[in-house]
Amino acid sequence: MLSIYPKHPGFVSYAKNVFIPVTNVCRNHCAYCGFRREPGQPEARLMKPEEVIPILKNGEKAGCTEALFTFGEYAEEIPEYRAWLEALGYSSTLEYLVYLCEAAIDIGILPHTNAGVMTRAELKALKPLNASMGLMLETTAELEAHRDCPGKVPERRLETIRDAGRLEIPYTTGLLIGIGENQEERVEALEAISGLHEKYGHIQEVIIQNFAPKPGTLMEGWPGPTKEEMTDTVALARQLLPEDISVQVAPNLIDPKTLIEKGVTDLGGLSPITIDWINPEAAWPAVEELQARLGGTLLRERLPIYPQYIKMGWYSARISRLITMLSDRDGYRKKPDEYGKQA
Fold first, then answer.
1. Measured at the alpha carbon of residue 103, what is the angle toward residues 36 and 46, in degrees to the nearest 5?
2. Sorting pLDDT into bands at 50, 70 and 90, what band is 343?
3. CA dihedral 92, 96, 102, 103 (to 10 degrees)
4. Which of 5, 107, 109, 206 is 20 to 30 A distant from 99 in Cα terms?
5. 144 within a domain of the structure (yes/no)
6. CB 260 within 8 A of CB 291
7. What confidence score (pLDDT) does residue 336 get?
8. Is a pLDDT exceeding 90 seen at residue 268?
């Protein structure tokens, strides 16, 4: 796939989103995860429509363009969760997610779903209702941190990413750095992602995310990656990935300024109204604050679907009106005062 944008565009992009953790019940037992809860624990949840809809409406009013729907993986394997779903009137997570995506579109926000490994049929059902989707590969290594995690078998995750490519879904993936993998395994993971993109052309961004230890987890005493490890991995990603894939870091977890010099071109989703539910201890920086920290490197807002995929028409008729309304001539976020004008 040919690159539309140069490797160093002279700015760093970001999206404005609402982060909606639909459920934190999950079949996996990752040793580092502070998000997962068991039914019966006080914080275990399946968000009801009356909880989700106000967040979507407030996000639209705040100028957000992305509804990030996150889930524990295949919670339906847990009986209590199935009972919660049935009480809401839904027979499956997929059925409920379709409803939530439809609601987001009607309100004026583009869905982006990250629900763990998914079948091709599930991806196909969600494609018309999502501007983009995602799944962190994390690593191709078999690690102790992923013991008792059926969804973290590397080939299963690669197969989901592969199926998304076959379906032409603009896709996000990434590596989690510092969970026991070594440099050689990071190279292997980046090469696997690169190979899938070279075949299908669908991976819009790769996140290089630093592990952050969480209290109460099996890895709470595990050290996070060093700055040198993160710098080296970002440089490695920029070297190994096709140049039309954006390299992303999370600015609430790591200072992005020096990493931009190594090849970072995107800072992910920033929310003005919701927290990072995966890393609740790390507040999002305000856009103005982030711009001040970056100095001469300009920030440019995008949609959850990257500009090249807008230009290629990788989206459905269901979300076409929204994308046209929200995007400018270059495929980035249209300024609010330009709504209703010719893109």
1. 25
2. very low
3. 180
4. 206
5. yes
6. no
7. 65
8. yes
Residue 317 structure tokens: 């008729």
Other C-beta atoms lying within 10 Å of the C-beta of residue 261: 13
Tokens 């440089």 map to which residue? Answer: 235
Q: Which two tokens stand for residue 247?
A: 């390299």
In a domain, residue 8? The reply is no
Assess if residue 209 is contained within a domain: yes
Cα 11 from Cα 260, distance rounded (Å): 9
* Residue-number span of the structural domain to which 225 is assigned: 17-335
pLDDT, residue 8, reads 56
Read off the pLDDT of residues 69-102 as tens digits, 9 standing for 90 and up: 999 999 999 999 999 999 999 999 999 999 999 9
Q: Is 7 a member of any domain?
A: no
Cα–Cα distances (Å) from 143 to 153, 180, 261, 287, in that order, read: 10, 7, 31, 36
Q: Look up the CATH number of the domain holding residue 301.
A: 3.20.20.70
In the predicted structure, residue 66 carries a pLDDT above the cut 80: yes
Bridge partners (DSSP) listed for residue 128 = none
Whether the CB-CB separation of 207 and 221 falls below 8 Å is answered with: no
Our count of domains for the chain comes to 1
pLDDT tens for 18-43 read 999 999 999 999 999 999 999 999 99
For residues 90 and 100, what is the distance between their CA atoms, to the nearest angstrom?
12
Provide Rg for the chain, Cα atoms: 19
